[in-house]
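hi! just following up on the protien thing from before. the input was this:
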Amino acid sequence: MNALTQWHIDSSQKLYFLLFLHNHPRLKGTGRELAEQAFLGDTPQADRIIADLQQLGLLDRVDNAYRLRETPEIKAGLQELARAFEQPLIRQKMLATVRHREYFVRYRLHGSKVAVS
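and the predicted 3d structure came back as:
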């Protein structure tokens, strides 16, 4: 689960999107197209996820299209995430970790408590 920390995965949507890209490594498209194909929808949240992943160096942007960056380190990290996510108990722990981070980020950014289900 080092990739969770290394890549600052702070939402379940971001985790699912990374796993989606891992399963479709050659997929290329605009932010809107990728979000729709990954069932994130065309939302500000999807835009933030794509911007975060690009800033972290996980996505390349060419013209108006994004694509998963293919480096040995990224491939290995995504492989680790995918393998861990396949294990039900580890998956639950990963999702709990991500929910905790999501709450922490919202709390720090907004300065007030936010209910997270």
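The chain is about 65% helix and 10% strand.
The first strand starts at residue 28 and ends at 29.
cheers
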